[in-house]
Amino acid sequence: DTLLVDHVLTLLTLTGIISAACRSLIPPDDFIFCPQALMERVSAQVHYVPARWTRSAAHLADVRDQLAAELFPLKAVTMVEQVVSPLVIPYLLFRRLPDAMGEIFDFIVNSTVHVQGIGDVCC
What is the pLDDT of residues 60-76, one digit of tens each? Predict the structure, then answer.
Protein backbone atom coordinates (compact mmCIF):
# COMPACT_ATOMS: atom_id res chain seq x y z
CA ASP A 1 0.00 0.00 0.00
CA THR A 2 2.84 2.44 0.71
CA LEU A 3 4.19 1.89 -2.78
CA LEU A 4 0.89 3.05 -4.25
CA VAL A 5 0.82 6.16 -2.06
CA ASP A 6 4.33 7.04 -3.20
CA HIS A 7 3.29 6.73 -6.83
CA VAL A 8 0.25 8.93 -6.28
CA LEU A 9 2.35 11.60 -4.55
CA THR A 10 4.92 11.46 -7.35
CA LEU A 11 2.23 11.85 -10.01
CA LEU A 12 0.62 14.76 -8.13
CA THR A 13 4.00 16.47 -7.81
CA LEU A 14 4.85 16.02 -11.48
CA THR A 15 1.40 17.20 -12.54
CA GLY A 16 1.78 20.32 -10.40
CA ILE A 17 5.21 21.09 -11.85
CA ILE A 18 3.98 20.63 -15.42
CA SER A 19 0.90 22.78 -14.87
CA ALA A 20 2.99 25.54 -13.25
CA ALA A 21 5.40 25.47 -16.19
CA CYS A 22 2.54 25.63 -18.69
CA ARG A 23 0.86 28.46 -16.78
CA SER A 24 4.06 30.52 -16.90
CA LEU A 25 4.07 30.30 -20.72
CA ILE A 26 0.67 31.97 -21.09
CA PRO A 27 0.97 35.76 -21.50
CA PRO A 28 -1.16 38.04 -19.33
CA ASP A 29 -4.54 39.22 -20.67
CA ASP A 30 -3.37 42.83 -21.03
CA PHE A 31 -0.21 41.93 -23.01
CA ILE A 32 0.24 43.95 -26.22
CA PHE A 33 2.66 42.61 -28.83
CA CYS A 34 4.67 45.48 -30.32
CA PRO A 35 7.56 44.12 -32.42
CA GLN A 36 9.04 47.55 -33.21
CA ALA A 37 9.46 48.37 -29.52
CA LEU A 38 10.94 44.95 -28.84
CA MET A 39 13.41 45.36 -31.74
CA GLU A 40 14.47 48.75 -30.37
CA ARG A 41 15.07 47.23 -26.94
CA VAL A 42 17.13 44.40 -28.42
CA SER A 43 19.19 46.75 -30.61
CA ALA A 44 19.85 49.04 -27.64
CA GLN A 45 21.29 46.11 -25.71
CA VAL A 46 23.29 44.28 -28.40
CA HIS A 47 24.22 47.29 -30.60
CA TYR A 48 23.84 45.13 -33.70
CA VAL A 49 21.04 45.56 -36.20
CA PRO A 50 21.71 44.69 -39.86
CA ALA A 51 20.15 46.93 -42.48
CA ARG A 52 17.72 44.19 -43.55
CA TRP A 53 16.19 44.30 -40.05
CA THR A 54 14.76 47.76 -40.38
CA ARG A 55 12.38 49.01 -37.73
CA SER A 56 9.47 48.81 -40.17
CA ALA A 57 10.18 45.11 -40.89
CA ALA A 58 10.39 43.99 -37.25
CA HIS A 59 6.98 42.31 -37.44
CA LEU A 60 7.98 39.95 -40.26
CA ALA A 61 8.60 36.30 -39.47
CA ASP A 62 11.85 36.07 -41.44
CA VAL A 63 13.36 38.99 -39.49
CA ARG A 64 12.38 37.32 -36.22
CA ASP A 65 13.84 34.00 -37.37
CA GLN A 66 17.11 35.63 -38.50
CA LEU A 67 17.41 37.47 -35.20
CA ALA A 68 16.89 34.27 -33.25
CA ALA A 69 19.30 32.27 -35.41
CA GLU A 70 22.13 34.82 -35.51
CA LEU A 71 22.07 36.34 -32.05
CA PHE A 72 20.50 33.69 -29.88
CA PRO A 73 21.41 30.15 -30.97
CA LEU A 74 19.73 27.26 -29.23
CA LYS A 75 21.44 26.01 -26.09
CA ALA A 76 21.50 22.51 -27.57
CA VAL A 77 23.48 23.77 -30.58
CA THR A 78 25.94 25.58 -28.33
CA MET A 79 26.37 22.48 -26.16
CA VAL A 80 26.99 20.27 -29.21
CA GLU A 81 29.60 22.74 -30.48
CA GLN A 82 31.29 22.72 -27.06
CA VAL A 83 31.36 18.92 -26.96
CA VAL A 84 32.51 18.44 -30.56
CA SER A 85 35.23 21.10 -30.58
CA PRO A 86 37.75 19.15 -28.43
CA LEU A 87 37.39 16.28 -30.88
CA VAL A 88 37.77 18.41 -34.02
CA ILE A 89 40.65 20.66 -32.93
CA PRO A 90 43.27 17.87 -32.58
CA TYR A 91 42.30 16.61 -36.03
CA LEU A 92 42.78 20.08 -37.48
CA LEU A 93 46.09 20.58 -35.68
CA PHE A 94 47.61 17.21 -36.58
CA ARG A 95 46.13 16.56 -40.01
CA ARG A 96 45.36 19.88 -41.71
CA LEU A 97 47.85 22.30 -40.14
CA PRO A 98 51.06 20.56 -41.32
CA ASP A 99 49.87 20.81 -44.93
CA ALA A 100 49.37 24.58 -44.56
CA MET A 101 52.57 25.33 -42.62
CA GLY A 102 54.41 26.47 -45.75
CA GLU A 103 51.75 29.08 -46.51
CA ILE A 104 51.66 30.21 -42.88
CA PHE A 105 55.45 30.66 -42.74
CA ASP A 106 55.46 32.49 -46.08
CA PHE A 107 52.81 34.89 -44.81
CA ILE A 108 54.74 35.57 -41.59
CA VAL A 109 58.05 36.11 -43.42
CA ASN A 110 56.55 38.32 -46.14
CA SER A 111 54.44 40.50 -43.85
CA THR A 112 56.84 41.00 -40.94
CA VAL A 113 58.78 44.25 -40.65
CA HIS A 114 61.26 45.38 -38.00
CA VAL A 115 60.28 48.57 -36.19
CA GLN A 116 63.02 50.31 -34.20
CA GLY A 117 62.21 50.29 -30.49
CA ILE A 118 59.37 47.79 -30.87
CA GLY A 119 60.81 44.80 -32.67
CA ASP A 120 59.28 42.60 -35.34
CA VAL A 121 55.70 43.53 -36.27
CA CYS A 122 53.41 41.54 -38.53
CA CYS A 123 51.47 44.03 -40.62
Answer: 888 888 888 887 788 89
